[in-house]
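Entry 14. Two folds queued back to back today. First construct below, sequence then structure tokens.
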Amino acid sequence: MQEGCRVIAILGNSGIGKTALACYLLQKIKTNFELVICLDLNLSPDLENTLKALILSTGNKTKNQLPSTLGEKLSILLSNLQKKRCLIVLDDVQTLLSEKQLAGNYRSQYRSYKKLFKIIGETVHTSCFIINSWESPQEIITLAGKNSPVRIFPLKPLGLAAS
């Protein structure tokens, strides 16, 4: 909160507690935001549907007022994120990523998510995204750093005593 993070990626193995940690964090900081949105990407929605849900939740547009192009939708979402302080949790981001390839690469049908992650990490806004995943999308890895508004928090596997 104090460092103005726009994107926080919580990474770790399945079942380690990423979602539980995000829920705990959400309860602690939600009063600092006007709006809290949680989306589970486990069903691997295409970016168009995700953007539609985010725009309708964060702004004052109706379904019929949404533009047709991806660029226009991203622009509206970004404008909404600059006007209204939102906390957006994206769970199960790994479902967008390819298996058995270099880490952080997308499945072909979800490559357009690159644009979303790039724009929310690079552009100044007052909102915050929490991304839960087994691995980080490449854009997040590229933008992350100690003094950056994009951070990665890898969770280490629990020891035998914890189980």
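Second construct, same run, same settings:
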Amino acid sequence: MRQLQLGTTRFAGGNPAFFYHLFSEKAARTGGIVRRAVRDVEREVGRDAIIAEVKKREFHLLECAGQFVIICAPDHLTVHR
């Protein structure tokens, strides 16, 4: 698998280390999947901030059953039902 570059974005509000820890996980660095509880993300950085960060990285963000699921690959995404 290819390695993905980590960003160093800082946000004025919330926990500035949150994204560093989230996207420095092995799964995030290698194009895998990470998840966090929606309530934790909203408390630490806010919904708009996670959406902006995922968009900046060209990753994919899903929300289901109180969880944010981040697919850490900029590749095309197809959802099958």
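Quick look at the second one. The chain has four helices and three strands. The beta strands are 33-37, 60-64, 67-71.
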